[in-house]
User: Which sequence fits this backbone?
């Protein structure tokens, strides 16, 4: 049996995060939101070990 590479998209559900705004259309992710993003990505990737250390 032969194998080949095929694209496989992985979707992580959307979450709401807090961002800093500068009064125009620029937004910057807060440090707390960055941690939430990392933990959410890790949870959906199955990487739960050591996240409480972040």
Assistant:
């Amino acid at each position: 049996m032969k194998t080949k590479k095929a694209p496989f998209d992985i979707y992580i559900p959307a979450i709401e995060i807090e961002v800093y705004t500068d009064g125009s259309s620029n937004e910057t992710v807060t440090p707390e939101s960055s941690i939430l993003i990392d933990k959410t990505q890790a949870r959906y990737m199955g990487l739960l070990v050591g996240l409480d250390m972040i």
Remarks:
- The beta strands are 19-21, 27-29.
